[in-house]
Structures are given as C-alpha cells and as structure tokens.
Amino acid sequence: MTNNILDVLTYMFDYLFEEAEQDATHEIDNTELKAHLSDIGFDTMRIDKALSWLEKIATIQDGKIKPFKTTYQGSIRIYTKTEKIKLNAKSRGFLLFMENIGQLNGNQREMIIDQIMLLGDTSISLEDLKWVVMMVLGNSVDGETSTQWLESIVFLDENRTIQ
Q: Alpha-carbon distance 98 to 101, whole Å?
C-alpha cells in the first residue's frame, strides 16, 4: 500500500464520510481512527503526520496562526523554485482558475500552498491538489462553499468544464 500522507487523508475522509452516513450519532475519536487506519495497513508515523496536517488547518481556522492576507485584488502570486517543483504548471493554473472564478481568495490559496508544501511528496498531481483544495476549503471560515461544488472539483473529469 502506498503510504504517503495524502493517501492516509483521502482514505480517512472516505471512511469518516461512510461512518457518518451509517450512524450520524456515532463520533469517532482520534484513538479509534488511528486504530482503524493502522489495522488496514497505514504506517503509524504517516497517520500521525496526517492528523497533524489536519490540525494545522484547524489552527489556522481558529485564528491561532495568522494567515497570509492579500490587500490588492489584482495581485499575481510568484511561486518559489521549491513550490514550482511541488506544483507543476497545470496545478498552478488550477489555483489561478479557482481564484479567477471567485471560489478561492488569496488567503485560502496561501493556506492550500502551505498545506501542499507540508506533504512529503516531491511533486503533487492535479488530482491530489484538488483533494487538498477540497479539504482546505471545506474547513475554511473565509466564506461559504458548497460541499457538492467542492466534491465536483475533486471528481471532475478533466475533459469537462466546471459548472
């Protein structure tokens, strides 16, 4: 089994979603979640990193870490060499597209880039970027985003357009 942080996160979200559909009253705590993830074969170190990754999003959302603020609406993001390695041109274009259609603001973009940089992989695919976008925007307090719309981003066929 591939054992990167994003694999753990995507499995965890699928598992939690399924559990919530089956029994909305049952809340899964971290110990139960860690045990389940470990039982199916995820490395304990990766599980802990994935949970820390999620906690960072929550910390930013709670205002404990001051996020980046853009003051000029028409500004352009200049990516560092390391960020360009992690996010290819297609992925950077997707982030720009999301900003241009008003579904992502500068603060959210920076949170997404920050979370991408925390992932252990050398580069990230567009599909994986979409999962990160969904996770960050789904936990964002910077505006209301439809869950259905977020899911359409992740499961979007690259040959179709976003509605």
A: 5
Number of DSSP helices (H) and strands (E) in the chain, helices first: 8, 0
The 3 state secondary structure assigned to 63-102 is: CCCCCCCCCCCCCCCCCCHHHHHHECHHHHHHHHHHHHCC
What pLDDT tens digit does each residue of the chain (163 aa) get? Answer: 445 788 888 888 778 777 777 777 777 778 888 888 889 889 888 888 888 888 887 776 665 555 555 555 667 789 999 999 999 999 999 999 888 888 888 888 888 998 899 887 778 889 889 888 888 887 666 555 555 666 666 666 555 444 4
Q: Do the Cβ atoms of 121 and 6 come closer than 8 Å?
A: yes
Residue for token digits 């209301």? Answer: 144
